[in-house]
Automatic annotation (TrEMBL):
<keyword id="KW-0028">Amino-acid biosynthesis</keyword>
<dbReference type="InterPro" id="IPR045304">
    <property type="entry name" value="LbH_SAT"/>
</dbReference>
<keyword id="KW-0808">Transferase</keyword>
<keyword id="KW-0012">Acyltransferase</keyword>
<dbReference type="InterPro" id="IPR011004">
    <property type="entry name" value="Trimer_LpxA-like_sf"/>
</dbReference>
<dbReference type="InterPro" id="IPR042122">
    <property type="entry name" value="Ser_AcTrfase_N_sf"/>
</dbReference>
<protein>
    <submittedName>
        <fullName>Serine acetyltransferase</fullName>
    </submittedName>
</protein>
Amino acid sequence: MDNPNIHNFIELLHKTHRAEWEATPKIQDSITWLSDLIEFLFPNNRLHKQSTYEGILKKNQIDLENILLSYLDPIAFDVEEKVSAFYNALEILYNDLRADATKIYDNDPAATSIHEVIVSYPGFYAIAVYRIAHKLTKLEVPILPRILSEYAHGKTGVDIHPNAEIGVPFFIDHGTGIVIGATSVIGQNVSIYQGVTLGALQVNKELAEVKRHPTVEDNVIIYARTTILGGKTVIGHGSIIGGSVFLTKSVSPYSHVFNTHQLRIDVKQTIFD
């Protein structure tokens, strides 16, 4: 290539890639760490000897440290402290996820056991990755939580931003097409079905620090394909939101909100000779 424009472009490309590469954890390493952690908490491939648990967990901890050190300044960001805080909270995270799995089992007549939920339900997997990513977000770990949540999004069709606040227990049924925005707040004992969106009324970069997504209080059920928008929109506790509802305003506690479109079925009788 003798074209100087090509040389200049390649030089710019390399500088840009180097800067971005140095500021980003390796995606495959991040996914491997996540998979190992979930396998440790909820083993499916094989059951380890109890004597090996501590070593497996220690390796997972070292892997997280190495991931963070690969793209963060160890002086500005205390990697050891953050990693320690994450693993100190692991028992609470595990108990929360057991509660999530139990609620899914209790609410889904097709589920034959809690273990079936844990190893095969995409809704549970999406919740598990969300809770891991959310904990990292609370510890102010950059970028890595989004990589984890987008990986889960690709596997399950459930898009939960790691900044969202979601209480325990939480029930996702089927899951495909669910979107939960970054400033969403969801209370305890909430159930959400496929195709539900908790979104923003406006998409504007200037609103990055503003609450843009709804608040869903405790004991709410939101059925399939419903869209709820706006940071000031509050779904009062104990409410039931029916399928295919579009909401941009708050509803009081214990409300029942349903789509009023009526389906008409005309039956034409066929006479056989």
